[in-house]
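Regression check, 2'-deoxyguanosine-5'-monophosphate case 114:
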Amino acid sequence: MSDCLFCRIVAGDLPSDEVASTERTYAFRDIKPALPVHVLVVPREHIVSADTVAPEHAEILAEMMSTAQQVARAEGLSERGYRLVLNVGDDAQNSVAHLHMHLVGGRPMEWPPG
Ligand code: DGP
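Current build output:
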């Protein structure tokens, strides 16, 4: 989708700070990091959000998890822990309509979120 921000990043039409790249996924640093480590893991295919995920996306979702694990290990987060977040809709402050998993960590976090 030419008017989708993350599709344009995946295509290389817009710059990004790449962290990992696989057949079905791409991971890059969030432009406005909320924690010391803040990486976005996205599918290369345009999927709007977790709310529109369907059974045919199973392989993509599995690969997103695998990429997240790979990034967490590379960033040294596996032992201390990290959080994976999928925001959906306005109440969750979802701002980009292309499925993305936030991988955040690098310091202790609060739960529940505000
Ligand atoms: P969400 O609120 O869940 O829709 O998260 C969208 C995230 O995307 C937000 O943390 C900021 C990030 N973001 C927005 N525009 C850009 C961009 O152009 N580049 C990068 N690297 N991140 C972006």
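Comparison notes: The chain is about 20% helix and 20% strand. The pocket of 2'-deoxyguanosine-5'-monophosphate is lined by residues 5, 16, 28-32, 40, 87, 93-96 (CB under 6 Å). No diff flagged against the previous build.
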